[in-house]
Design a protein that fits this description.
It is a single chain. The chain is built from six helices and no strands. It is mostly helical and 125 residues long. The longest helix has 27 residues. Helix 3 packs across helix 4.
Amino acid sequence: MKKTWVEKYVEDPWSMRAYQQERAIYEVTELLESLMADLGITRAELAKRLGKTRGWVTQLLDGDANKTIRTMADAFAVLGYEFRSTCRPIQIATTTANGKGHGNHRDRNGAHRSKRSPQTARRGK
């Protein structure tokens, strides 16, 4: 079976680390945005609750801002939620038996979210 671009990319240990960093950033951002949508919270309201500007929140959610664990835990806390993280062995299988790719992205309830790559999704494409 032919390897996907992602499978080839992550063969290099440095590339695997970069991929995992981007995946983690994407997942925590999606988790926060999904929670905000579920609660009907706007970026302006989140900024108010955090004591930050709307621009700061926009950079946190859209840009390459450093999303520290402390920052993300604070954002979830002002929404009434606690942030939890998990780890598991790396799995890069992106091809199904029929040869079609599938996304590994899940929402906070474990439901399938998107087929977009973390980099593409973060750019809003």
